[in-house]
Amino acid sequence: METTPRGRWFVDGFLVAMYVVLVAVAVPELRPHTEMEYFRNGIPSPVVGWEIPPGTTRYTRVYGGDNWTRSLPMLLTVLLLPMLRRRPLVAAFSLALAELAVGTANAAGDARYVLFVAADLVVMDIALHAPRRTSLKAAAFVLSGALAGTIVAPPGASSLLGTHLIVILLLTTVAWLIGNSVRERRAGAARQRADAAAQAVSNERLRIARELHDMIAHSIGIIAIQAGMGNRVIATQPGEARKALQAIEETSRDTLSQLRRTLTALRQGDVAGTPTDPAPGLADLDKLVASTQRAGVLAIVETGGLPRPLPGEVDLAAYRIIQESVTNVVRHSGARTCHVTVEYGEGAVTITVADDGHGVLGSGGTGFGLVGMRERVSLVHGEFSAGPRPGGGFLVRAKLPVPGFGTVFGGPGADPGPNPDPENPESADAPQDPDSDPSVRDASAAPSAPDQNPAVTS
């Protein structure tokens, strides 16, 4: 049963009272006493004369209590341990009073130091769990009690008083520093975990936003164009209107299916049995080309280099970049064709999407689509550029690094990538002129009315 605040006050007060009473009972047993020894016959010296002359009286100080009695004030500290979390300053003040009582009783040095070490362990625990201001006050209480008891009645010779004071000060300081440093390190680790969790949530939110944008923007763009075309020809060309409605139905059903899978995964998390499909990749470009062609834009896809399997995140990023770029062509450029190039180079795959339309209207190319593409490229540490072409149209270019391409497929005869000129190695990082890019130059020369299935070539 949980103790009420009033009950906790009663328990803590009882523990403090018991501790003070038991220490007060134990302290008198620690006081030293003087014993007199009379040498009636003396003690002769082994060499010559007397070591102790006959009739000599010697007075010797003898400390009271055995080892158990001298350790009792230290052992009684366990009574204060339940209070360290609730009332650390009360516990520290009680220890200071005990140190002062043991010191003023002129107890033996071992009795003083074992109690002082126990008090320092309490200071370390308080510094480990309590705020810095509270732990500093507790350390000051303990240090004051030990110093006052030592100054009033120094243990041993008076000449060693300075040494005792320095040792007491150093031990208390070290105990507080250890506890405080561990607390700060734990707090820093907790802050790092909280920041990492917040960053993970933010990254996941952005990832979901990118996926939903790329999924919905492409589908809604196709549906809007098909609906507009069907609306214009429904009276004169019912067959074309029926094809447009069929395309709208297929696209909307596919989008609804993807949305359902995404929302189900978000609601249930990583639960076994959640319906999931493999993430799209460059292998799905045929479907993308077909849906784009139904919207009135022919996407001509060319592949350069040696096609190789890509890591999942790179494959998804490449597909989404092409999907968003082609969607922008359909919605904004007014072009009838666009040219998509996938170049497998050494250590990277380069994606280029070019059209000969009038560019991105309205937002000037600063919408969420371009932002999402930049984020995808940044996540895989690639390079991204997008902007109007000097000769007209729009160009999107993304270079996605692929670890392992250069080591697995490199060597003599391997694909040199985007920099085939060995005489000018710096040309790989130089910006390319869109008019000098074959993929861009060939896009304007692409036929406006191709056959039914000429879109994918290699």
Structural account:
The protein has 458 residues and is of the alpha+beta class. It has twelve helices and nine strands. The chain has helices at 5-26, 67-75, 88-104, 109-129, 132-152, 161-233, 238-268, 285-294, 312-333, 368-379, 405-408, 438-444, and strands at residues 33-39, 43-44, 50-52, 56-62, 298-305, 337-344, 348-355, 383-388, 394-401. The strands form three sheets. It has a five-stranded mixed beta sheet, with helices on both faces. A two-stranded antiparallel ribbon has the order 1-4. A two-stranded antiparallel ribbon has the order 2-3. The model is unreliable at 270-275, 361-366 and 407-458 (pLDDT under 50).
Architecture blueprint of SSEs:
Elements: H1 5-26, E1 33-39, E2 43-44, E3 50-52, E4 56-62, H2 67-75, H3 88-104, H4 109-129, H5 132-152, H6 161-233, H7 238-268, H8 285-294, E5 298-305, H9 312-333, E6 337-344, E7 348-355, H10 368-379, E8 383-388, E9 394-401, H11 405-408, H12 438-444
Parallel strand pairs: 5-6
Antiparallel strand pairs: 1-4, 2-3, 6-7, 7-9, 8-9
Helix pairs in contact: 1-3, 2-4, 3-4, 3-5, 4-5, 4-6, 5-6, 6-7, 6-9, 9-10
Strand order of the largest sheet: 5-6-7-9-8
Total number of β-strand segments? 9
Radius of gyration: 43 Å
Q: Residue-averaged pLDDT, rounded?
A: 77
Distance between the termini: 76 Å
How much helicity do the residues have?
Answer: 40-55%
β-strand percent reads 5-15%
Structural class: alpha+beta
Q: Tally the helices: what do you get? A: 12
What's the SSE pattern? HEEEEHHHHHHHEHEEHEEHH
Shape: rod-shaped
Low-confidence segments: 270-275, 361-366, 407-458
Largest sheet data: 5 strands, mixed
